[in-house]
Structure formats: structure tokens, C-alpha cells
Here is the input.
Amino acid sequence: MMKWLVVLSALVAFSECIRIPLIRGKTARESLQEKGLWEEYREKYPYSPMVKFEQSGTQSMTNDADLSYYGVISIGNPPQSFSVIFDTGSSNLWVPSVYCNSQACQNHRKYNPQQSSTFKWGQGPLSIQYGTGSMTGQLAYDTVNVGGISVPNQEFGMSRTEAPFLAHMQADGILGLAFQSIASANVLPVFDNMIQQNLVSQSLFSVYLSSNSQQGSEVLFGEIDASHYTGAITWIPLTSATYWQIKMDSVTINGQTVACAGGCQAIIDTGTSLIVGPTNDINNMNSWVGASANQYGQTTVNCQNIQNMPEVTFTLNGHAFTVPASAYVSQYYGSCHTGFGQGGSSQLWILGDVFIREYYAIFNTQDQHIGLAKSV
Here is the structure.
């Protein structure tokens, strides 16, 4: 997953919409590689991307060790600013707090309830499981400001403990954009609260992710920005209003079905950098594109061969969406890697940022559809 982040701007020209520009920060992987700690962390905290979709009494999320886009929000009065990942694969908002002594809290901004005149204690604790660890904390209420729109009485989590891996992340916390049905402690998500308080003109939000570290990535609440896509929007109904889950018919390369034979389920997840699928299917895809994998599942290809590598087509509810090699191969530290990650035995797929960078994504909560259009 190489996921998202940004310096926040104020409310823009649209009436009753929230536009949050996103910028790409240094990923946790890049930070660890610079320090020579990447392989150690991969072995100590193995990548478990499917853990966020395992249903239990506690809402779980994943951290794929490669988050990379963030946005700035504020909490409280006067406002305290935090960078957060806008994650369609989870439903809770949480940030570090002054009650946290974990290493990850020492190098991130921490929320101090004593400095906010609108703070109120919530009911009970919060615990969220990640693919590389977990966070625990306490629920609270305060005013949350996103892109210049104030959301009063928003329930959120104040972390008390955080997994060591989070110390290497650029973002301070996470703002979940999935449905309340999977929120820990049944917390009303931020966007749902915006809708209930009539703070947005439409019950949808849209996401544009730029490529190659370019600026311009954004989350737009309440509106669709036609300048970010070309052609028609394809609307796909949700199969489950929990995560943003849809039906995938197949994955093909050169006209041959290489994965998801007979159909499967897929999640459109801004909080995951990679395209993740069952291990056997991912291995088959990597074999078809000429990639080899190491013991951590990281795949390598010849950087000189990218232009000759095939496109990969994902057919979603009868509509084909093609991802070229220039989009699914990334280069860092002198080597090239595919953006296909192993998800174990689970048949659920995650279409993360590798996919979303190619297709402008619109998340309609009222109609329970996802719209996809070719990004420009």
C-alpha cells in the first residue's frame, strides 16, 4: 500500500463541499531503508494486509508498511493540527494523545484535551489491530475541522499505545471513511456526521491520487471534480456496505484469466498502497509479468523491461479497468517492484493506491455505489 497524505487548504470555490489537497510524503519503507532497518522490520512485523477485513468485536485495520499520502485536519478549540491518512478501508478517526508514551507518539503531534474548550470524554476504550501491530486508546468528543468545515461533537480515539512501526510513518493518525457498521465501538464516522449535520451538498466524496510524487492529489467531500478524469463515470453497486466492497469478475493478462477465476470480491481501499489478492493468484500474476519474489513476498522486475511488460485488466461488475506496467511497477533504491501484494488464503482482494492512481474514485454513501473514471 502506498497510501495518502497532505497539507490542508481552506474551503474552496464550491458551495458546501470540502476539498483536501494531498501530497506524497516519505513512506515508512523509505524511512526504514535509509536507516537499514527495512528487512528487520519485515521479518519482525510480517505484512498481513487481510487483517483489516477480519470481522470481530474490535474493528481491525491494516498497515502495509508503505503509507504515503496524508492530509491535515484539526481537533479542538483552539484547533490542534494533525496529519491523517484518509482511509476507505476503516471507519474510525484517531490521533496520538498526551496520554501515550509509545515511541510512535514521541515523534508525532499529540492531542491534549486540557487545551480544548470543547472536549468531552467518550464512553469506553478503543482498540484497533493493524497488520504490523495495534493501537489502543480512549474515546472522546470534540470539534473536528476538515478542509475548513467544522464538525462539532465528533467522536474519535485518543491513542494510549501505538505499534512501534507507526513511529516511522509520516502521518499522525487515521481518518476512516468506510461505513459505521464496521466502526469500533459503533462510532459515527466523520463523513456520516457531516451528512447528518448537512455540511456537504451530496452524500458522496471523491478521491484523486497523482503519480510520481506530483502534487494535486485530493479528497473532495460532497462534490465530484470533472477536471480529474476523462470519459464517462462507471457506477458499480456495492455488494456490502461495510467496506467499499464490489464484485470482481476476473483478472486477465493478454486475454488470459490469471486470477479471480469464476469471480471474487474486491475492496476499493485508499488506505492500502498495493493491489492485494490471494497468494496463489498474486504469484501467478507476478509470474505472467516476469517478476520474482523474495522471502518477504516483495517482487522484483528488470527496470529495463517495463515498457515490454503486459497490461493487467480487472473486470469489475462487467466493466474492464486496465492497469499498465508503468502504473503497477515502482522503482526505489535502484530496483523495480510490482505493486501486487500477497494476501494469504483469503479470497478477498484489495484494490489500493496502485489501482486508484489510474482511476478517479467516487464513493456514494446514499446510493451505495462506487464510481470509477480514467484519471488525468
Q: What stands out?
A: Confidence is low (pLDDT under 50) at residues 1-16, 54-67. The two ends are 21 Å apart (CA to CA). The chain is about 10% helix and 40% strand.
